[in-house]
C-alpha cells in the first residue's frame, strides 16, 4: 500500500478552502494510506472528513528547539511516504522537504509544492494572484490530479437540537434564524465591521421575526457579548460550537453575515446564502469563501474601511430563504 502525506496547517478559512483538494487527493489515491499533517485546531475536523487514514498534529518546532525538530524529522523519514502534497506551501512546510531524505538515511519522496528541487513543482507565475481554490487546483494538476471539485461537507453531521433553532427545535416551531460572525483576528481590527452595526443588523432581523445567532471562538467573546448586550433578542453561541456544529447550523440557517473570518468559510461551504464583509486588509479575489456552486451563494461587500459600510447595504445584500 502506498503512503501519502498531505500538509495543511491553517488558518481555518484556508483549511476549509482545501477541502476540495483533500477529497481530490483521496479520489486519486483510493487505496493509499493518506496522512494529514496539520495543527491542533483542525484535527477533529480532518478526522471526521474521512479523507485521511491518520491525522498527525504538527507542533511546528522552532530552530531553537533542535530536539523537537529531530523528532519530527525522524517521524517524517520513518513513515515511508512515497509522495507529499504540500498544500500549505509556506517556508516552514517547504523546509520539511529538506528534512525528508536528508537525515537518518531516509529516501526523499515525490513532492508537490514549491520547495526548491521538488519533483512536482507548482511553477505558475500567477500563483500570488490566484484565489486559493484555483491555485491549489493548478498545483494538483501539475502533479497529475485534475478532478478537483468544490468542497462537499456532507460528511459533517452533528446533533444541534440542543440549540432549539428552526428545524431542530423539539417542537419544530422555532422561528427562522440567521448566523452572524462579528469577530475576526484580534491583531487585525480593521477586518471587523463595527459591533454596533452588527447589533443594529441583529435588531433588524429580530424585528422581522428572525432569530440572530452570534458565533465565534473564545477569543471573540467580548465582541459577541457586546452585540448580544445591544440586541437582547440575539442568541449568543460564542465558544459553544465546534466546527462541525457550525456546519450543521449553517444547513438550517436562512442566511449568514460576517467578517472575513474562518466560520464564514464553513458556513458558505454548505451553500447557506452568505454575505461576507471585506476591508482593504484582505483581498476577496485571493481568499473569499466559496459555496458548493463556487461563488454563486456568496455575496462579497468590500470597502477600504468597514467603517464606511452602511447597515442598509448589508441588510439589502442578505438573501433570506
Brief summary:
The chain is of the alpha/beta class.
Polypeptide structure, described:
34% of the residues lie in helices and 16% in strands. It contains twelve helices and twelve strands. The longest helix has 13 residues, at 66-78.
Per CATH, the superfamily of the largest domain is Glycogen Phosphorylase B
The separation of the N and C termini measures 47 Å
Q: Can you count the helices?
A: 12
Number of beta-strand segments: 12
CATH class label of the largest domain: Alpha Beta
Q: Structural class given helices, strands, pairing?
A: alpha/beta
Could you report the average pLDDT, rounded to the nearest whole number?
Answer: 94
Query: If strands are numbered along the chain, what order do they take across the biggest sheet?
Result: 3-2-1-4-5-6
Number of domains: 2
Task: Name the overall outline.
Answer: elongated
The CATH topology of the largest domain comes to Rossmann fold
Main β-sheet: number of strands, strand sense, barrel status?
6 strands, parallel
Tags for this model:
alpha/beta, Rossmann fold, 2 domains, six-stranded parallel sheet, 12 helices, elongated
Please describe the topology of this protein.
Blueprint: E1 3-7, H1 12-17, H2 19-28, E2 33-38, H3 43-49, E3 54-57, H4 66-78, E4 83-86, H5 91-99, E5 110-113, E6 120-121, H6 132-142, E7 177-181, H7 195-207, E8 211-214, H8 221-230, E9 235-236, H9 243-252, E10 255-259, H10 262-269, E11 274-278, H11 284-287, E12 298-302, H12 311-317
Parallel strand pairs: 1-2, 1-4, 2-3, 4-5, 5-6, 7-8, 7-10, 8-9, 10-11, 11-12
Helix pairs in contact: 7-8, 9-10
